[in-house]
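REQUEST FORM: STRUCTURE PREDICTION
Request ID: SP-0412
Submitted by: Lab K.M.
Chain count: 1
Length (residues): 252
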Amino acid sequence: MAISLTALVEEADRFLDAARIQDYCPNGLQVEGSPLVRRIVSGVTASQALLDAAVEAQADVVLVHHGYFWKGENPCVVGMRQRRLKTLLSHDISLLAYHLPLDLHPEVGNNVQLARQLGLTVEEPLEPGNPRSIVLVGTLAEPMQPGDFASHVRDRLDREPLLVEGSRPIRRIAWCTGGAQGYIDQAIAAGVDAYLTGEVSEQTVHSARENDVTFIAAGHHATERYGVQALGEYLSGHFGIEHIFIDCPNPA
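STATUS: Completed
RESULT:
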């Protein structure tokens, strides 16, 4: 079965309500390929490794969280960018990318999907009145010691996290996938026992230690594998087309 690329893009845009969200990159169709779609390949980032795997899988669309054309980047089509675009265009493959809309979505979003992976119950956004608030606050079913929770994260995400250990058990927790370590001070002000994200900065460690809050950096890539898979599965089920998730491991 094949559907039109236009129908696929329109449904993804509608489902994620992408037009309402200002972002650091264009969301939606970034590179146009074949007008018909039979197979979607999804992945975290539109790296050359993912594109090569998509070519091998005979994909018509590559669906990612991290696409191209970020604000402030050199717009020249040279080097790595030329090779990536050439791969897409020469194989008639479309690139469909969603950044903040995929972080924020209440069903397939990265943060909600990470909560499901880790067994966290979502209570509210960290900033309830802010429509762009991507940090969530919630609870564990039972309190866990920081080291035990870090082991749980490792087992669920298949990656050893960085742990800054607080002194108290973890029950209430804030989290945000990717590079959201800068929200740690707001999370501390909200009275959580722990804050989890993908990346860590030097000052993040000091904030955690000096406020006696557990901090876990579980990996940018590792924490953002689940939203794009869920979106791919939604589109696959909605249109009756094939979806394959391909993980290109990244230690960061």
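NOTES: The first strand starts at residue 3 and ends at 4.
Reviewed by: T.R.
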